[in-house]
Amino acid sequence: MSRSQTGQPVTRNQDANHELSIRVRDLSLWYGESQALKSLNIDLYQKNVTALIGPSGCGKSTFLRCLNRMNDLIPGVRIEGLVEMDGRDVNARKMDEVALRRRVGMVFQKPNPFPKSIYENIAYAPRMHDLVGRKAEQDELVERALRDAGLWEEVKDKLHQPGTSLSGGQQQRLCIARAIAVQPDVILMDEPTSALDPISTATIEDLMDKLKKQFTIVTVTHNMQQAARVADYTAFFHLGEIIEYNDTKTMFSTPATKKAEDYITGRYG
Amino acid sequence: MGVIELSWWQLALAALMVVMLAGCTAALRLGMSRSLLIAALRTVIQLALVGLVLEALFAAERLVWVVLMALAMLLIAGREVMARQQRRLLGGWTFGIGTLSMFLSSFTVAVLTLTVVIGPEPWYRPQYAIPLLGMLLGNTMTGVALALDRLTDTACRQRGVIENRLMLGEPWQVAIGDIRREAMRSGLMPMINAMAAAGVVSLPGMMTGQILAGTAPGLAVKYQILIMFAITLGTGFGTLAAVTVGSRRLFDGRERLRLDRLSAPRS
């Protein structure tokens, strides 16, 4: 059985020398009576892409939403266990949600630009957090975020048009630019490409590859090829448990568990 | 100038013409003659009853009766606010917020207008207090109902945007700021439009009524201006209170958007 009780991947990747970003220990979550997450242990490393895969309803998104305390939107949710980011307990009573969320950006399945200009979509939050002062600084930040998100060339001449006027793939990159503009440590992505066409999907995947130099990325995906292409580590979820967690190469070439193998090869799920 | 007495048979003439209108709509198959007649009948019965109540109230001129009447009007208005929502805040919050904000704004403005501005003797004289409060409540109710409906409906439709803004580390007040402004605007717009059009497009009902009753136009105009300002104040502060408490209720102490506190939309 290769389920790692310590939360570390059973990796054969000896070069792996990464610093810990998020440490999860014995994390369980209940929606009322039904248990959605069962005592999860996982270590997520800085400046890597970690993909969460598994059949629908297996707890991937629920887990993702535990990392920035977005989860407990639903009444009757009960969370036990530890989620630690840079050594601080995310679920602690005295944790400042606003500060936490600034450090953990999120990109949703459906792009949802604010009904404002492209420029304002990006500049609004950093201005609120006092990350920028003068107009020139703001301009610089907007350009940097758009360049990092690979959107600058396409929109530099229409920064003051509404963000909603862009195409779906551009909108999603705008949302990524918006998330990185507040300079988070971690970016969570919940099926970021499932609403996009193949070309936009490829662009976003390239982007993830670039962004991991600066950010820790955790992404949920239903697309096996995508996980294989972009992720350094992959965790396979099934019925609220992490069945297998490993470096992606090992996971996809020689999965240690039957369930993971069946899922990856498409025999199941 | 006095008022020309109006007798029931004269009203019957007007009623006959309404029946004729209903006949016409029935002949044209507009499918509304029935609701037209029912509404007309309701007008007669409800206003006749109110007339009786008001006459008794005016004769008694007791504070306790005025207060009871005012409370009854308030509760009915609160129920009406609730009935006009696509999505209600569960646990009686819509009724509570609506009633409380109407109470705070309408009652305060009514009492202030009575004691400071008009100054009848005694200040709660039903002839002034009840119509004033009625107009205030009626308009505030519309504003509060529109604003709350817009607030909850937009919050539901823009859930993704709000959650994303929370995820960017915005506190809830900022994350819902745009929607709050929009809700305020939709609550206040009818009143602003009414003030802008007053006298040019439409002659306001109360002023027309006073003129019909023999008041000099100059005085009627002054009363109308006073009433419009009072209504604007009532609607404005009522809407402000309702939107403030309502949007607070959409979030909890942990900066989470709580749409589960809303009922499912009515189809």
Structure description:
The complex is a heterodimer of chains A (269) and B (267). In chain A, 34% of the residues lie in helices and 25% in strands. With 269 residues, chain A is an alpha/beta fold. Chain A has a domain at 46-62 and 96-264: Rossmann fold (3-Layer(aba) Sandwich), CATH 3.40.50. Chain A starts with 19 loop residues before the first strand and ends in a 5-residue tail after the last helix. The model of chain A has no long low-confidence stretch (mean pLDDT 88). With 267 residues, chain B is mainly α. Chain B has ten helices and no strands. Chain B has helices spanning 8-27, 33-60, 63-83, 93-118, 126-157, 159-167, 172-175, 177-197, 205-212, 217-249. Chain B is globular. The termini of chain B are far apart. The A-B interface holds A 68-70, 72-75, 97-106, 108, 110, 112, 114-115, 125, 128-129, 175, 178-179, 182 and B 160-161, 163-171, 174, 178, 254-260.
